[in-house]
């Protein structure tokens, strides 16, 4: 457990052990998230870090992608008509 | 005047198409993926705007064209929220993600439920599951 004091400007020092734990250094981005009545802090994972994360052999094509989306939406609509 | 116009052009956000994000994630062309990576890396905070409807398209393509499951889609959505160069409604998308994650509903249903909750608005629908998730705000016309 670590305690920090907030300055007049609202700044707070993240203790060195926590910075090491989160693997953050100067200029790293961190995220604050409300979880119930507390706030969680974590290192930001940005979209560039997910480059190539989708394991696929499919080549992207706007036309093919549009067709899949259209099929998905019509199926979703058909399913909803059945249930509502 | 010209200088002022240039200044405005520089500070205005730029729009992103769904395929920009998709080709980064799939890296089916390493050249294009790298071009997107440097575009996003070099962007000023909130310089690149992802409209709500484009976010929906990204989710639909990931789901239907690449057969991605919810947890993988959510990982990408969270990363978009946490990318400083990208401008999107962070509060809304954060709420959409938590509703989408906790319920067996589609992305668009989660979007509507999140809007209803965040903006305290009634939501008319014939979808009983969505009505339930929206709580007292869900209504059948």
How would you portray this structure in words?
- The complex is a heterodimer of chains A (84) and B (141).
- Chain A has 84 residues and is of the alpha+beta class.
- Chain A has a domain at 51-83.
- Helix content of chain A is 35%, strand content 14%.
- Chain A is built from 2 helices and 2 strands, in the order H-E-E-H.
- Chain A has helices at 16-22, 62-83; strands spanning 30-35, 38-43.
- Chain A has a two-stranded antiparallel ribbon with strand order 1-2.
- In chain A, a hairpin with a 2-residue loop joins strand 1 and strand 2.
- By secondary structure, chain B is mainly alpha-helical.
- Chain B is built from 8 helices and 5 strands; from the N terminus they run H-E-H-H-E-H-H-E-H-H-E-H-E.
- In chain B, strands 1-2-3 form a 3-stranded parallel sheet, with no helix packed on it. In chain B, strands 4-5 form a two-stranded parallel ribbon.
- In chain B, helix 8 links the parallel strand 4 (123-124) and strand 5.
- In chain B, helix 2 (18-26) packs parallel to helix 4 (52-64), helix 5 (70-81) runs antiparallel to helix 6 (90-102) and helix 6 crosses helix 7.
- Chain B is globular and about 55 Å long.
- In chain B, 35% of the residues are buried.
- The A-B interface holds A 29, 31, 33, 44-54, 56, 58-60, 62, 64-65, 68-69, 71-73, 76, 80, 83-84 and B 19, 21-28, 33, 36-37, 40-41, 57, 60-66, 68, 72, 75-76, 78-84, 86, 94, 106, 126-128.
